[in-house]
Amino acid sequence: MSRRLTVGTLYERMKDPLELELLGSAAGLDREITSPEASSPGLVLAGYLNRFPYQRIQVLGETEITYLQSLSEELRINNLEQFFGFPLPCAFITKHLEPPEPLLRLAEEAGVTILRSRLKTAEFYRLIKPYLADQFAPTTTLHGSLADVYGVGLFFTGKSGIGKSECVLDLVERGHRLVADDLVFVSRRGNDVLIGKGHELQRHFMEIRGVGLLDVPAIFGIHAVRQQKRLEVVVILEEWDAEASVDRTGLDVQTQDILGVEVPKITVHLNPGKNITVIAEVIAMNHLLRYYRGYDSATAFNERLIGQMRRTSDVQRYLQEDDE
Question: CA-CA distances (angstroms) from residue 226 to 83, 147, 176?
């Protein structure tokens, strides 16, 4: 799922960062932006129309404006009519340059919004590309709590009332940080990075049953929260079931698909007396060992066990063959 983005929404949210002003008519503000890319029209302004990515927002920098000004009036009008003949979402002019005649009139006739930025073209691209990437990133909403434990994003999930929030609250009390509670908005960046954060209104409030809503930064300090965090491990909390099949070694790594990314998944069965907070810290440290230092405790133990069995087998075979 990705969010719908219009030119008007982009203008409203990025007006200050991009130092934007609206030139001419606002008729095109309702147009939808359908591509996460921004590009300069380039050869289209010279009349070469093949391979023109008109779905992208168009950026006219000093090169494009200077080129248009160098054309004869007749050729400039002809090339601009061809340019605005495409269903462009909108066009930006950077460096606070003056648009050559009759760019604004032709844009208005085509229903295309022209926005002008005071930023240099490179700085404009540097700011708008991450914004577009975030807007078009695949997103989903997960029920659970996300915490930063030793720099690892642990997502706790499980049925209602199992103790997800209580677990994260205990982690916060031990110096770790809350990212989001109850609802976690997850977006995918690139091919394999998931970023989780909370709702703007709900963010950093926790509901503890029997206590009510807690303002975590007000109680524990601003250092107890963070705005967003990479989601790296899914921790499923389940009630203890003596009949359930439980992984005893950790050799069989389970994963969960979130937005096409396979995330390590660990199921923790709860029973009275189990210290889930310490277990969560161990899960985070074990993840650091496995993925950042290449050390897997379960694999190391298994290799040690196999080595011991092989040495024992060699000794027995030697003794069997020793018939002197």
Answer: 45, 9, 10
Using the predicted structure, report yes or no on whether residue 230 has a pLDDT greater than 70: yes
Rounded Cα–Cα distance for residues 188 and 257 (Å): 12
What residues act catalytically? 143, 164, 182, 248
Structure tokens at 290: 């496995």
17-31, 181-195, 288-302: lowest mean pLDDT where?
Answer: 288-302
Only one residue has tokens 């302004």, namely: 45
Residues 41 and 100: their CA atoms lie apart, in Å, by: 15
Q: What is the pTM of this model?
A: 0.71
Which pLDDT score, from 0 to 100, does residue 258 have?
95
Instruction: Give the tokens for residue 270.
Output: 């709860």
Reading the block at residue 159, the tokens are 């049925």
Per the CB < 8 A criterion, the answer to whether 130 and 68 are in contact is no
The torsion angles phi and psi of 241, rounded to 5 degrees, stand at: -135, 110
State both tokens at 183. 């609802």
Task: Express each pLDDT in 247-261 by its tens digit.
Answer: 766 667 789 999 999
